[in-house]
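Revision sheet: C-alpha cells.
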Amino acid sequence: MMLDATDRRILAVLQKEGRITNADLSERVNLSPSACHRRVQQLEEAGYIDKYVALLNTRKMGKPTTVFVEITLQSQAEDLLDAFEREVARVPDILECHLMAGTADYLLKIMAEDTEDFARIHRQHLSRLPGVRQMQSSFALRTVVQTTALAV
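Predicted:
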C-alpha cells in the first residue's frame, strides 16, 4: 500500500488525537465518513497504524523522574544478548530499551518517583541483569521536546 496525501493527513490527525470520532476525522481530512472509515481500516490492516494507546501523565502517576541508563555488556555473544533482552523486558519500570551502536550496548529509559525509587529499581532489577559490565545513569533535568507523533 502506498500512502497518498489523504492517508498522511489521516495519520497526522490520529497521532495527535487518537480518540477523534470518525465523523470529526472525516471532516478534518475532507472525506465522507464511510470513505474515511475504509481508509483507516486499510491503514490498520497494512500495519501503518500499529496500536492505539492512552499516554499517562507521569507527574500525576507519581513517576516524574526520567532516567536514561547506558549499559555495556561483558560480550556481544548472541546468547548473552538474548538473555539480557529477555530479562530487561520483564522489568516493569523500563519504558524503552534500545540496542545501540557506539560505546554503550543498550540505552534504557526509566520513569521513577525520585532518586530513592531509582535506587530501588537499580538494586532490585538493573544490578541483576545478566552480563552487565558497566552501567551509567543520567537523570533528565527537564524535558524540552516530547512527542510520539512521527512526521508524515
